[in-house]
Amino acid sequence: MPGLPPTHDAFICVALPGLAISGEPGQLAGRGLDGFYRGGRRLLSRCQVRVAGREPLPVQARMTGADSARFVGTLRVSPVAGPDPDVVVERARNADGTERITFRNVGLRPLRLPVEVALGTDLAELGAIASGAAGPELTATVHDSGLRWATADAAACVTADPPPSDALASAGLLRWEAELPPGETVTVELRIRPAGAGTLRPAGQAATSPLAAAQAAGDDPRVAPLLHTAIADLHALLLRDPAHPSDTYLAAGAPWRCGMAPADALAAARMALPLGTRLAAGTLRSLARTQLTGPGPGAGMIPGPRRDAGPHLPPSCTGTEATLLFPVLLAEARRWGLPEQETRELLPAAEHCLTWLRTATGDGTYLADPYPAGPARCETQAHAHRAALLGADLLEAFGRPGATELRQWAQNLRTAFRADFWIEDRGGGRPAAALAADGRPVPHLAATTVHLLDTGLLGAGRPAPGLLDKARTEHLARLLGTPAMDTGWGLRGLGTKEAGHNPFGHRTGAVRVQESALAVAGLAVAGYEKEAGGLLRGLLGAAEHFGHRLPEMFAGEQRSAGSAPLPHPAACRPAATAAAAVVLVLTALAGIRPDVPARTVALRPLRSAPLGELSLAGLRVAGAPFAVRISRLGLAMVEEAADGLRLGS
């Protein structure tokens, strides 16, 4: 089977369920992923512009937004024009299925331009394209002011404004004759639609957004475009729950994962809480509807697919992660300002998740993943421990039973974990990646250990206790800062000294942005500012090379003077967790820890101020705008907040 078509050099315009993908020249040549898509189906795979029988020479391509791109080319049409171009061709492409092609005469003589656009499609599903099973181009028919293609189960059409002077269906050609005086322009607009469908209305472009339009400014000029791009990407990846359109959630990423991925949707909504709680609420409601019910060992789980975990461990279950993330997101969304009534309505689903956790562990201590016969993974125990503590906090707040039992189980897990999951060695030891079914520790050092630092937010801005004690947390912080783990751009998925390390392996050495961001935030909370600041600066450096649009992962090659991070050819970009990670790391600098039920917010900024002065405005706490400024001395000042919200210690 052929490999996935590469995405690292593609221009991907996203406004789900719409996509538009091409290479840098801008022509859709019908190869690889080229095309306009709607709901995972390619409506148009070929759109080639020719003027006087020749293709424009590409001179510039750039993204103009998460959902749009601009391509510029030139031509020398007049035989007496000399070496200079006399025609500029500009293509403005949008993920909603429109393309405006503008021809401009920059010469001194009037031009008569024969223009043709060659169109074609296979109407293939994205999955078939990824597996190399897309079929041949279909034969078009003339339709309205353009062309139409159809199969037994799908149809698409392209209409042109102005209508072409000639349409040749057998060759998929639309033709115009343009009279163009010096300095004048003529524009052709193409509209690509499923046959019978109306204008695309992406969830991210609704009149009211679940995400606040936050802004960043400061000494480091990279923070403003980084946050702007991240929020634009989050908007582009928003989807509506088909049965409940008022509820929105994030698709995992484009182009490969344009649907619901429960663990990623919950993780991204959690990292994006500083932009408001509406995304969290929509995600939680949508996933509560999928929760398994009835008798059996799966009752209470949020279903999710298996995920490759590299050569040392079998695939993990993203459903386990999602089930443990659900009560955590609900508890923390309440701290950020999710209304009590909405929290109460979602509480039964969170209780079912917590009941599943206690049922799955039974009389034992560790949670197997996949349940019931998989290994006890380090990160799964971290997820379970956090879910128990934050879940207990949530149950107690609403007078529900079970909090005491959850806290006792979490205490037992801490005791056992500290005895069983630490591997002593000459370097001071390390956390085990997992315990095999026979209790044998799996010793490789992986970025999944960062989940031990992500303990969660309790009341009064207190972090929940972690599975590691203070001394071992300090040692883990040092391990994460070594060259074996830190590339200088972010954390490797697997240390360079470990068997099976591969800098391009998505679980065996590539830098996964979400894990690096969790490390920054977790290290900051634990007080290891040097390591947190180093990883933060590395991520910002990588983002600059990626045009401030971080992919979900990139190669774990070591940074050196004059180098740049290597793209991963199969990475989603944009990706929900990568975009939301930007929100997490920037707000981690300010140490914003709200407790809206208690009407307080604590600020515990990084005293080292690794980016100098930083201002964050347009965030949301308690449903109201929140702005904070961190000085070069690492002091934080609230500049805007909800009425009655007190600054805690």
UniProtKB/TrEMBL annotation:
Residues passing through the membrane, by range: none
Q: What region holds the Putative glycogen debranching enzyme N-terminal domain?
A: 20-191
Pfam families documented for this protein: GDE_N_bis
What domain of life does the native source organism fall in?
Answer: Bacteria
Q: Name one GO biological process term.
A: carbohydrate metabolic process
Protein's name in the database: Glycogen debranching protein
Starting at the broadest rank, the lineage of the source organism is: Bacteria, Bacillati, Actinomycetota, Actinomycetes, Kitasatosporales
